[in-house]
Amino acid sequence: MTLSLFAKTVILEKINYAFNSRL
Question: d(Cα 23, Cα 10) in Å, to the nearest integer?
Answer without folding.
Answer: 20
